[in-house]
Each structure stands twice: as structure tokens, then as C-alpha cells.
Amino acid sequence: MKDNLVKIARYLKKQTTLTLSCVSDDKPWCCNCFYIFDVNHVSFIITSHSNTRHGQIMQINPAVAGTITDQPAFIGNIKGVQFSGVIYLLTEEEEKRARQLFCQRYPVAHVMKAPMWQIMIDELKMTNNRLGFSHKTIWRRIS
């Protein structure tokens, strides 16, 4: 399973944006966010205001899912990751470390005052058609 995480992490570190989905009252909603991947905690760090529609939903129902993908023109080059996990607002101390890492990758984030969130990933599934049509690499958190 660790080898799978290494393969998936290599891809995730090259990407910048994830699509995040959440649900409230059986109604789905999604948003796009810049992220950093924390391989040590197997988590994503994002920044978003808590008063947005998705921010309000995630405070009530922290179960989330999402995708990270390239936009290839040829089906044989499709590569992307699906994920599920639990999101939470970082504490003040956690946020200091996370914001520092986030701003290293996205310097413009220094001027943003939106709170930092962490998505603790439960499952990652990577599709890589370059390794064969619909080739899957899967990682799951062991409780």
C-alpha cells in the first residue's frame, strides 16, 4: 500500500487544483480549490472562507470527496485522482504551519485571510490510462 501512496503522491505534488464535493440535506455542492498535499499526514490543505456555501456545509457535514485531474485531449492520456475523507478547520497553531507551507507554493496566498482547512484522506484512487486503459492505483487509510 505504501508503494501506491508514493506513486499517487508524485502525481498530486505536480497538480495545483482540486474539485471538492460536499453534501447538505441530500443536496450536493462542489468548489475548486488550490491545495498542497501533505504526504506525512496523507492530507490536503486548502484555504476557503467558512461563510461560503461549501464552508457552511463542511462545518455541518465534514465528509467530503473530490477529484484532481489533467485535461488531456486524448483518452489514452487520462490521468487523475478521486479521493474521500473528512475536512476540518485548523486550530490557530495548526494553521500557522499550514499557511507557511501553502504560501511557499502559492505566494499570492500571503494576502488572503481565509481560514485553512485540512482534508484527512481516507481513500485515494488514481486512474492512469498511460499504464493501460483504466489502470487503477488505490491507497486506503488503515484505522
Automatic annotation (TrEMBL):
Coiled coil: none annotated. InterPro entries: Split_barrel_FMN-bd, UPF0306. HAMAP family: UPF0306 (MF_00764). Belongs to the UPF0306 family. This is UPF0306 protein DKK76_04800. The lineage of its organism: Bacteria, Pseudomonadati, Pseudomonadota, Gammaproteobacteria, Orbales.
